[in-house]
Amino acid sequence: MFFRGRQPETSIWKRFRGAADGFTFGEEKDYFVAHLVANAERVVDLSLALLEYLPPAVDVSLQDARTGRSWHGERLALPDVRDELARLKTLLAAHGGVEIAVYTSEDQLTINAVLELFIYSRTDHWLYILKGKGLEERRLVRTRSWRLASHEYPPAPELSAAIVELADALKLSPA
């Protein structure tokens, strides 16, 4: 039989994940931490999707490992931040080397320079959000943090220029 009833939607995270995709979740003294590892495109896409769960005003911190430049902004409109970060999506996934932190007094989402996602929070609600996205909690994830030192990132002038444009568009201050 070729036709069956309507199939339930399967999360793209479940259908196309790699064997190493997943996240760990733990509790430190004052906060919870999630560490997500997947391929670069998935990490960038997921981080943009997870920004929806933050309040309307956020703080942003950027650090370009290639140039050593850093920027910081406070109480920025979340839709503006999401739109500007979405423009970087392809370049960021292709090159890495930029640490982006979007945070409030309660939550912080950080993509590090090797494109791993870290979430810090005062509550455990991110565990349920990540599971709701179809991601698997694991005891251990294979980290990529050891792969490159900050001075070893290959040149990516397009990304560095886009980071400067992002900082200008969001009116971030040099840090």
Arithmetic mean pLDDT = 87
Strand order of the largest sheet: 1-2-7-6-5-3-4-8
Q: What overall geometry do the principal axes of the alpha carbons give?
A: globular
Total number of strands: 8
Q: List segments where confidence is low: pLDDT < 50 over at least 5 consecutive residues.
A: 7-17
Q: How far apart, in Å, are the first and last alpha carbons?
A: 63 Å
Helix and strand pattern: HEEHEEHEEEHHE
How would you classify the helix and strand content by structural class?
A: alpha+beta
Helix content: 25-40%
Strand content: 25-35%
Number of domains: 1
CA-atom Rg in angstroms: 17 Å
How would you sum up the major sheet? 8 strands, antiparallel
The helix tally amounts to 5
Task: Give your account of this protein's structure.
- The structure is a single chain.
- This protein has one domain (19-142, 150-174).
- Helices cover 31% and strands 26% of the residues.
- It is built from 5 helices and 8 strands, in the order H-E-E-H-E-E-H-E-E-E-H-H-E.
- The chain has helices at residues 12-15, 40-50, 78-95, 125-132, 157-169, and strands at 22-27, 32-37, 57-64, 70-77, 98-103, 107-111, 117-121, 173-174.
- It has an 8-stranded antiparallel sheet with strand order 1-2-7-6-5-3-4-8, with helices on one face.
- Strand 6 (107-111) and strand 7 form a beta hairpin.
- The longest helix has 18 residues, at 78-95.
- The termini are far apart.
